[in-house]
Specification:
7 helices
Length: 282
């Protein structure tokens, strides 16, 4: 009795399966753009209704967290600050065919954010090395889950396609709390779930030791200085899974890491620590 319905479904799947996968893009070229066709062709393939963006290895990107966002960089992906940038910036980048990632700190408290007073002192730990920032007690999901959900809601309301949650490796640092690897896995998966429930992609920031356990939970990775510390090979599970690795170095010249980046299919940039508009792509 249900055979006609099944035939229709099968035909639909056949037709949609021939389309480009969500987030498919050619590898980045030496200028950091798509291998052909500029920003509009890279990483912006249409996804099925309700599906989320999935960036592919080698896609070009720009990471800018300070200063006025330079929207003229010809790359398929921008990663910008979720609080500082208005919806109009996201809309402008979308108009140019670009995907936009929302940077948020999910593992550390920042005293200048508009919701800073919503965090009780009991969840604030030691400083993480950056002025005005303190590690969070990620075991306290009863407190942190609703706060992070509100932040990711903000990203969604501004139109962002994905979230870059920062400070996701507190258990490997001196936070003031007795955090374990299990605590970190639980919290990182919570953040991934909050993003996915809102139809957004999410990236694993650093946390190299837990990549084998978390690669299936995240849609891409973001890494700082894997070349400087000889850790880039640790990111290959993401590449093997067809997921982009957005990578930045600050202290090495491009001659010291770009050859390896191209071999591993990382999306690599040289940036300055302030993460302004300046970039040099592999």
């Amino acid at each position: 009795m249900k055979r006609p319905v099944l035939l229709v479904v099968a035909l639909f799947l056949l037709l949609t399966g021939c389309a480009s996968a969500p987030g498919d893009a050619p590898d980045a070229d030496a200028s950091g753009g798509a291998a052909s066709g500029g920003a509009a062709s890279g990483g912006a393939a249409s996804a099925a209704a309700g599906d989320r963006w999935r960036p592919r290895p080698g896609i070009g990107w720009q990471w800018q967290l300070s200063g006025r966002v330079d929207t003229a960089v010809d790359v398929p992906v921008y990663d910008i600050d979720g609080f500082d940038q208005p919806k109009s910036t996201v809309t402008e980048l979308h108009r140019e065919g670009r995907k936009v990632i929302c940077y948020l700190s999910t593992g550390a408290w920042e005293d200048w954010r508009p919701d800073a007073d919503d965090f009780p002192k009991s969840v604030l730990g030691r400083g993480n090395g950056w002025e005005g920032e303190r590690w969070l007690d990620i075991r306290r999901t009863d407190v942190l889950e609703p706060l992070m959900a509100e932040r990711i809601d903000m990203c969604r309301e501004k139109g962002f396609d994905a979230v870059e949650p920062d400070n996701m490796d507190g258990y490997r640092n001196t936070t003031g709390f007795e955090l374990t690897a299990a605590d970190q896995l639980r919290y990182n998966r919570l953040i991934a779930r909050l993003a996915h429930e809102r139809g957004m992609a999410v990236g694993l920031k650093n946390d190299l030791d837990q990549i084998p356990q978390l690669v299936d939970d995240f849609d891409f990775a973001v890494n700082e200085q894997c070349a400087q510390y000889g850790e880039c090979a640790d990111l290959t599970p993401f590449i093997a899974a067809g997921k982009a690795v957005f990578h930045v170095e600050y202290e090495l010249p491009t001659s010291r890491f770009c050859a390896q980046s191209r071999k591993l299919r990382l999306s690599s940039l040289l940036k300055k620590y302030e993460l302004g508009a300046w970039r040099r792509a592999c």
